[in-house]
Amino acid sequence: MRNPRSIRFTPEELRANNLTVDPPPADSLFWRLWNACLPIAQQALATAFIQGINHGTLDPVKYGGFNVGDAYYCFKGANDYLAAASRADDPVLKALLLKKYASYEKYNETFPEVWHVRDASSVVPTETNIQYAQLEADVASHMDPVMCLVVMIPCEYLWYWLADQMYPPQPANLYAPWISGNHDPSGAYAIGNYLEVYQKAHGAIDYNAALGIYTAAMNFEKENFAGATQVVSRYVI
Amino acid sequence: MAQKTFTIDSFPQGYYMSWFVTTQAAYSVTATLSDSSQQYFSNTKTSTNIQPPLAQGASLIQGSNLKLLVNIPQSSSLDSSINTYAITTDTGAIVGYGYNICIEDSGDKDYNDVAISLVAWRNKG
To answer: pLDDT tens across A29-85, in order?
Structure first.
């Protein structure tokens, strides 16, 4: 089972856009950003939410609440990547942004049936949900469209890395599909490799600007996980 | 001289589209909406008065690669705030799409110099 939330490329799409899913070079922007934010990833791994998934002890009510909050981010995210694509001149960058949009659109179609959530306005978002979605909206509207790939990577790679720390899951773990479904870095690696190609064609991406966006996104990812188990439950059995 | 092209990627061929474009700009603004089959409008306006609109109308989308070109020769750079959305039914099914694009052509950052609303529905009438 793969996680439909993350981006996956078909062999045809990889060939058409000259993309590779090998790990990016060690000195690439992808790894420089990741290594700088590894402490945030480790904090995310230590959250009660992720450890609850790891040990199969996470309260399913809180898992559900997290997913509904995530719906807000995913509905907003689809619109943001479409907005960024409308401004992108590089054809491969445009294709990647539209691929992410299509990936979200497909995933978002499941929310009405699975979680009974129609759209973003159906959700009572957390402050972290709101701020994270606003970060993506600001990047999509105002920054160089390539920065949308930078802000996308934490979502794409952190979830893989977390799953990798817990892999393989115990077969009896209720959350084994979450771990197995996120255990694929290919989409994130393709984006990381493309960032190197992009910089050769268009010049270096401003590292400090990229790190600022990336760090903010990593922190929002971590805060989303941390906040998911801090909600006071009003649900009484 | 500044111009920007926005590709309208979520509007499928065969959908029924409306457009409404206003300006409040001292500079001359030309906006052009076209696809592979035709030009839907190309109008120019120079006025800080929002009335009349630079363009309004509707058409069936007949081609592919729909795009909006905004050209403001007197501006040195354009920035935009873009909101895209899906039109959903009460069950979450998507029956249309929309774009709101607000453009800043100078330095006061009010993003009201050009405002474009594009909506496309699966059905007409």
So the answer is: 999 999 999 999 999 999 999 999 999 999 999 999 999 999 999 999 999 999 999
CB contact under 8 A, B88 and A86: no
DSSP state of B21: E
Domains of chain B: 2-121 (2.60.120.400)
Contact A117, A76 (CB under 8 A): no
How much is the pLDDT for A157?
97
**For residue B11, what are its two tokens?**
């509007």
- Whole-model pTM: value is 0.92
Rounded to whole angstroms, the Cα distance separating A162 from A173 reads 16
Chain A with chain B: Cβ pairs closer than 8 A: 52
Question: What tens digit of pLDDT does each residue of A119-146 get?
Answer: 999 999 999 999 999 999 999 999 999 9
Residues of chain A in contact with residue B91, where contact means CB-CB under 8 angstroms, are 112, 118
C-beta separation of A189 from A24 below 8 A: yes
Amino acid at B109: K
The token pair that represents A190 in the structure block: 């393709």
DSSP B32-88: EEE-SS-EEEEEEEEESS-PSPSEEEEEE--SSS-EEEEEETT-S--EEEEEEEEEE
Residue B110 exposed, middle or buried by CB count within 10 Å (0-12, 13-18, 19+): exposed
